[in-house]
């Protein structure tokens, strides 16, 4: 008979046997008393089990606390490292940006210097017949339009009263419309005292013909005779040696 079969048979027959056989019941009770764990021993064993479980739990909690502390320390260290890397990258970016801006300023200064030289050489060429005055004027017009985003309108109108030249003739005028303001320009390789007076008469001719006030009078010429500057100041004419130096033309 196997152990399982024995257990099944005891479960089936033992209750009736205990009821019917008092001697067997007394014997079994004594066996149980002899082999059972005393209450005090059971309580001690249970208390020891609880103490061991609590100690194990404390050890586990301490282990996790140490691990959490190590992870937190590592996280702070990692954050510090990344902050330093980020700061170093920002310093490097700032250095390169400063260098880029410096290079752009140098390039702009070189470009402006080159343009001034071109205008000076162009003025000398136009004066000595190497290049035409019209080509020089067209170059200044292009610089104004490129530098300030404005349009320089070149007009030819007939002065039948002879206001400008003392007799009827064609009058060439350069006009800039900037935010509703009318600006008349004289773009020449050189300006004399007499040229300043002619430009002033051009302005008067334009205002009379179109019944419209001119807000600004601008002369752009790299070669202005010293005697012409007091005349320009008296007539309210702004004089610029180079097209790039012209002020107040950029759109807001």
Going by CATH, the architecture of the domain at 132-245 would be 3-Layer(aba) Sandwich
Structural class: alpha/beta
What is the H/E order?
HHHHEEEHEHE
Q: In which order are the strands of the major sheet placed?
A: 1-2-3-4-5
Termini separation: 110 Å
Q: Can you identify the CATH class of the domain at 132-245?
A: Alpha Beta
- CATH topology of the domain at 132-245, what is it called? Trna Endonuclease, Chain: A, domain 1
**Mean model confidence by pLDDT:** 79
Largest sheet: 5 strands, mixed
Characterize the overall form: rod-shaped
Count helical runs: 6
pLDDT < 50 stretches: 125-131
| Proportion of helical residues | 55-70%
Share of residues in strands: 5-15%
Rg, alpha carbons: 53 Å
In total, the number of strands is 5
Describe the 3D structure.
The chain is built from six helices and five strands. The chain is an alpha/beta fold and 252 residues long. The protein has a five-stranded mixed beta sheet, with helices on both faces. α6 links the parallel β4 and β5. α3 packs antiparallel against α4. The radius of gyration is 53 Å and the shape is rod-shaped.
